[in-house]
Specification:
Largest sheet: 6 strands, mixed
Number of strands: 8
Structural class: alpha/beta
Shape: globular
CATH class of the largest domain: Alpha Beta
Number of helices: 8
Bound molecules: zinc ion
CATH topology of the largest domain: Aminopeptidase
Length: 253
């Protein structure tokens, strides 16, 4: 008897659930934003991979300079340090990269970071593979520069040279380098140190997506070192990078 009453209760329950489903069908309300307007935005979301240069400790063990070469190069160096500020390059470029990440995300970009802390060990080829694995639409490596001549200052961009390793990414990397450098100079009024085309950068040779490396200024120049650490100037750098990225993708449409 007990079993039968349990079954009856369950059946009655099912009837109620069924009628509730029907109610909810009849009570269906159009969503406020039509579905067609949501979907394209999701599909067109662009991915930018940001690579804040270096890390707390360099790793000078070797890795191949490109997938097609037996030539070896240090996995990742420790970078430079501000002559006046005493701030390390790996600290400065992470700060600025995190500000750029925030700005890009506020504007609906998908951002992938190669690192968000200093205590990592990620080689330059591994950083490129993070961009590759995330199918980044653009891979931007953020660095600051140094020279023995302390008077040298300004912004430059390193771009892959056209060769066997970069045949698929050279053209777009070049366009992105030109557009982003112009935008950075416009925002900051920094000295324009131009674009260098390089075949000796592991993080370029391993990249399967358009890539460039921006040198935001010289930490070996006292004035520029201090400027690079000012929040107002960092904002100009972030705006310059952001507008350059926007202009590049607009051109690629
Ligand atoms: Zn560097």
């Amino acid at each position: 008897m007990k079993k039968i009453s349990i079954i009856i209760i369950l059946l009655i329950g099912l009837l109620f659930i069924d009628s509730n489903i029907e109610d909810s069908i009849y009570n269906y309300v159009e969503p406020v934003i039509p579905v067609e307007e949501i979907i394209p935005e999701v599909i067109e979301r662009l991915t930018v991979c940001l690579d804040p240069g270096h890390q707390a400790e360099g790793d000078y063990s070797l890795e191949p300079i490109s997938p097609n070469s037996e030539e070896m190069k240090a996995r990742v160096s420790s970078g430079t340090v501000g002559v006046e500020s005493g701030v390390y390059e790996y600290e400065l470029v992470l700060d600025i990269s995190m500000k750029l990440k925030k700005k890009l995300e506020e504007n609906n970009y998908n951002v992938v970071m190669t690192r968000e802390t200093h205590d990592v060990n990620i080689s330059n080829s591994e950083r490129a593979q993070i961009a590759n694995n995330n199918q980044a639409d653009l891979f931007i490596r953020v660095h600051a520069d140094q020279r023995d001549n302390s008077r040298v200052r300004g912004i430059s961009i390193l771009c892959p040279e056209e060769d066997d390793d970069t045949v698929n990414i050279y053209a777009n990397s070049k366009i992105a380098s030109e557009i982003i450098l112009a935008s950075l100079i416009e925002e900051t009024n920094a000295n324009n140190m131009g674009i260098s085309y390089r075949d000796d950068i592991s993080g370029f040779n391993w990249s399967e997506v358009p890539v460039l490396l921006v040198e935001l200024g010289f930490m070996s120049n006292s004035e520029e070192d201090l400027l690079l650490n000012e929040s107002n100037y960092q904002e100009k750098l972030v705006d310059g990078l952001y507008k350059g990225i926007e202009n590049y993708f607009r051109m690629m449409e």
